[in-house]
Amino acid sequence: MTTYTALELFIDGRFLSGEGRVTEPVFDPATARPIADLPHASTADLDAAQDAAARAFPAWSATPASERAKVLRRAADLIRARIEAIAAVMTLEQGKPLAESRGEIAYAADVIEWYAEEGRRTYGRVVPSRVPGVVMTVTLEAVGPVAAFTPWNFPALTPCRKIGGALAAGCTLILKAAEEVPGTAVEIARAFADAGLPAGVLNLVFGKPAEVSAHLIASPAIRKVSFTGSTAIGKHLMGLCARDLKRTTMELGGHGPVVVFDDVDVEATAELAATAKYRNAGQVCISPTRFFVQEAAYDRFVARFTAVAKGLKLGPGLEAGVQMGPLANPRRIQAMEAIVQDVRDRGGRVETGGARRGNDGWFYEPTVVTGIGDDALVMTEEPFGPVAPIVPFADFDEVVRRANSLPYGLAAYAFSTSARRIADIGAALKAGMVGLNTLAVSNPETPFGGVRDSGHGQEGGVEGLQAYLDVKFTASA
User: Which of 160, 171, 241, 285 is catalytic?
Assistant: First the structure.
C-alpha cells in the first residue's frame, strides 16, 4: 500500500495544514477515487507568501553563488535519496508508470544540481572604454521575487526547472503547482526545507488557478512570471503581466511534427516513434504528435507503429510491467473521444485503439489513426493524449509546408540517413527545439522553449538561468 503525502502549503519556511482552509479532493487516476484533500491558499496566505518572498530576496540575492549552490546540491541529493517514495506518490496522483516517475525525479534532481553549478558562473564582463580613465562593466543581478505556475503532466521536472533557475540566480519564488498532482510538489518543498533553504526563499501554494494567478501577478513584489501550460492561458497571463511590465517566460502548447523520409530503417524508426509517443500516455508538450511518412515507407511504418501500440501493457502505474498508465483526468478522456469521433466522421481509419478501457479510472487505449487530411482535429489541435495520426507525403517541399502549417513551434523531429537532407530539414523546421534522427531534445544543460504560439524564453541551459537575471551596465570615471 503506497503512503500518500500529507498535503500542506509551504509559506515562509512553515508547512501549513488544511485546517480552517478551503480544500478540494485529489484523485487517483487509475481508480477515479479520492486519495486526499488539498488545502487552498487563502488571500491572507497568498499575501504572506508574497511578503515572505519579498523579505527574503535581499539576503538570498546577496548570498554568494557558491553558498546558494551548496543548498541546491543538498536538495538535489535529498530528492535522489527519496526517489522511491516520491515516485510512488507521483504515480499515485498522476498515473504514469512507476519507472517513468523514477526517471523524471532523477532528471529533476539533475536539473537542480546543474543550476547549482551554473549559478556560480553568472559572469559579467569589462568593456574596453573609448575614454581613458573610464571603466565600463556589465553585471548580472537577480530580477526579484518570481511567481511560477506549473501543470500536472510532469509534477517534479517542471517545478524543479523553475525552482532551480530562480534560486540559482538569486531570486526567491512562489510556486503554484497543479492541484491534480500536489503531493510531488510538497515532497520537493520538503527536500529544500530539509536542505537548509532560508525561510521565504521558496513558497508553495495551491488554489483556484485564475484567482491565484491574478492575485500574485498583481502584486508589486512579483517581478517575473514563469508559466508552463496552454497557449490560451499563457496569452491571458501575459496580458496581466503587461500592466506592470513584468518579465515573463512562457512555455506553451505544441503539436510536434515528425518527418520520416523513406531512406531510414523503417521498422526501427517506427518503434522509436511509437515508444516516444505513448510516454506519459502522450501527455507531453514535446510529444511527437503529427507523423508525416514518405509514401514509399508509409505502409511499413504504419504496420510497425500499430503493432507497438497494440502490444503496450495498459494499467495502473504502480503495477509491475505496465507501460502506459491512465490519463491524468476525465477531461483528457473527453478530448480523446472527440478527436477519434472527428476522425471517424471524416472517413478516417482507426488502426488500433480508439476507445476507453474499463469503467474504473481514466484509461484510454493507445490509438493510431490514418486516412485523414491536415484539417482533421487531431492534426490541428494538440491532442495531449495517446492518439497518433500518421499521414503520407510525397516530397521535401510538401512536407515542410505541412509541418510548418500550424502556429505552434515547440518541438519538431525528422529522420533520414542523408546528411544533406537532415541538414536541410533541420534548417526548414520552425521550432524552438529540433531533433534530427533522435526524439531526445531535453537535457538539463540545453535550452527548452518554443517560438510563435508555443511561447518565448527558455528553461534549462545558460538561457534558463539568464531568464532570471537583469543586465546592469556601469560606467565609472
Answer: 285
Task: Judge whether 444 lies within some domain.
Answer: no
Mark whether 365 and 322 lie in a shared domain: yes
Residue 251 catalytic?
yes
Per-residue pLDDT of 252-267, as tens digits, reads 999 999 999 999 999 9
pLDDT tens track for 40-94 = 999 999 999 999 999 999 999 999 999 999 999 999 999 999 999 999 999 999 9
Domain count, the chain: 2
Domain span at 262: 256-436
DSSP per position, 275-333: HHHTGGGG--TT-EEEEEEEHHHHHHHHHHHHHHHHHPPBS-TTSTT--B---SSHHHH
Asked whether residue 348 falls in the same domain as residue 376, the answer is: yes
> What global pTM score does this model have?
0.95
User: Is the domain of 277 the same as that of 156?
Assistant: no
CATH number at residue 352: 3.40.309.10
Among candidate residues 251, 365, 382, 459, the one labeled active-site is 251
Q: How far apart are CA 250 and CA 467, in angstroms?
A: 11
For 428-439, write each residue's pLDDT tens digit. Answer: 999 999 999 999
CATH number of the domain encompassing residue 47: 3.40.605.10
Task: Label residue 3 by pLDDT band (50, 70, 90).
Answer: confident
CA-to-CA distance for 308 and 387, rounded, in angstroms?
13
Question: Alpha carbon of 315 to those of 35, 284, 362, 387, 447: distances in Å?
Answer: 18, 19, 10, 17, 34
Give the residue-averaged pLDDT of 226-253: 96
Name the amino acid, one letter, at 104: E
How much is the average pLDDT of 26-30? 97
Length of the chain equals 477
CA–CA gap between residue 197 and residue 60 (Å, rounded): 10
